[in-house]
Amino acid sequence: MDAAHIRNFSIIAHIDHGKTTLSDRLLHMTGTIATRDMSEQLLDAMDLEKERGITIKAHPVTMLYKAKNGEEYELNLIDTPGHVDFSYEVSRSLSACEGALLIIDAAQGVEAQTVANVHLAMKQELTIIPVINKIDLPHANVALAKTQMEDILAIPADTAILASAKEGIGIEDILEAIIARIPAPKPTGAPSMQALGFDSYFDMYKGVVTHVRVFNGELKAGMQVKLLHSGKTVEVKEVGSFNPKPYVRDRLQVGETGYMTANIKSPKDVKMGDTITESKNPSPVLPGFKEIHPMVFSGIYPINTADYEHLKGNLGKLQLNDSAFVYQAESSVALGFGFRCGFLGLLHLEIVQERLRREYGMDIIATYPSVVYKISMTDGTVKEVDNPAFMPEVNYIEKIEEPMVWAFVICPNEYIGDMMALIAEKRGTVDHTETLDDRRVMLTSALPLSEILIDFHDRIKSITRGFGSMDYEHAGYQPADMVKLDMLVNDESVDAFSCIVHRSKAEGRGRALAAKLKEVIPKQQYQVAIQGAIGGKIIARETVSAMRKDVTAKCYGGDISRKRKLLDKQKEGKKRMKSFGSVNIPQEAFIEVLKA
Fold it and tell me: Rounded to whole angstroms, how far apart are CA atoms 261 and 247?
């Protein structure tokens, strides 16, 4: 189709504002999906997405729509995630579009992630079409949503379209607005074919399937193309689009979105954001995306050590589908061989582990998540440490710096005191507060990244009864009094339970770990001491009592001294056993503690 009749757009919103429902409705309205094939959350292909009601992957789909002016248009939609941990996925999708539908929930108004996604779209200079969704809800407040749009996002309220994706209200207005307001794609004027690879996945039969958006020229089967980042030249085997299942096409022309397969067997050869061009007459590189740096690290180990190679292959396939995820091999005394993996945030970590378990059937165990600390040594060098095992000795450390984030928390007015208390508990400081409307405020606060890792998001939701939302961005490093907490079992340090914590939190964490270990370590023939230590100082202790065999069972009646003699003999034996007995911690104990 000629470029004048093509529109490329994506849908952006805060999590749970109705993106996926709207995309389902657009597919139905344009006749891309027959009524009998319709299902809830059609584009969310993963079970995990359906269960949690969130979008994890961006999904491209091509629709044909006959407009009111009688002409037919090709609309290429990319449905994007809303959660902060997947904002990288959003930025990649936006670079393949000319416009974006911004969805605002009429009942909840502008939320933290709405603001972040609008900034991403504005940075890419996209045309934004605001849609106020869920107007059919009894507590919808359209006037307030419009006021917030003008005050917070600086978007004129009269440009908004009122809709309800669930009831099908306003869907035709949205389709007409896409054609009227979003500009048609223009060729870049490069000397040859130029396409952007914005996503990919692994197919058992076709190898690596790359999602592409053509910016110049045309892409068709049989062409020799070059991937500029890896420098690899390949022959295109097949091109096509999605509706939402892949279908083959003769060619992809300027402005069209689809996929290509070539003889690419290894996931490592494809880089997200790579420019694809003709091998004989290459075009310059398209402005792709920045390299992404993981912020949270965790070790992933197979429960059965024989699955190591299998896990390695599956991590490669997963990385192809999720380029923000990185991994490298490591080994641990307690857990054997595994991988050190990097993630953008905690939800990202949780999703990757869950996908490994479900999609690839892996039995895995993950260590406690940690962040990257910058350690300045006394000899002037700076070392980056994400694993407590590599923490240098205290006497060689000059200072430790931890990563900080700016957290933007939006909550109802009545919970502002509780939110400030939570931020203070997490070692954060509130920089300033902003009143958004008569019901809600936004707190801008500086927090250590390590403190928001585990339960910060859940705590916000429980304190504000589900009405709070947060977004964060990285804010460099700052010095902190961090220490390495070692867990000793029978005076031997167990590296799998070590962690880097702030000195003020070390005692509480040591006690909690010791109490958990006491529950899971089986009783021995002698007493076992479980201790939490910082350097040489013990800060927490629990004792697993000895398993006692009744040695006096064979004595009946008679003198007490006979029983005494047997008990003393047992005591001596236990003492001797303890001096060279080592505690064997079962695999289940590691799994239980790491789960906690």
Answer: 12
